[in-house]
Amino acid sequence: MTNDLQILKGTPTISNLTGTLSADLKRVRVIAEINDASSFPNIEILLLDELKEEITSSVIIGAMSTHLELTLHLRNAKPYALFLMATVKSRDDQLIAQKIVPVS
Length: 104
Fold this sequence. Notes:
Blueprint: H1 2-9, E1 14-21, E2 27-34, E3 42-48, E4 54-60, E5 67-73, E6 83-89, E7 95-102
Antiparallel strand pairs: 1-2, 2-5, 3-4, 3-6, 6-7
């Protein structure tokens, strides 16, 4: 019974996702929060253009914290109509949660 409770309790969802474009238009500051990291999920953060095509990404394997902060670099991309997508996957790569927000 204890294992069943851990599985139910350990299902993370994305409770907050924000992306803020830097003043020099070359980076996006990302803040992501999940409600539960006890299952050590994999979290992928993608920066998308206006066509929802990937510009850059970062993957956190076995996240141990519910609060994540990181910076994504734009490289040569045009900094308009950007979107941020976060996916949470189980250790066996099953999609658990996904969220897309515009970058401000």
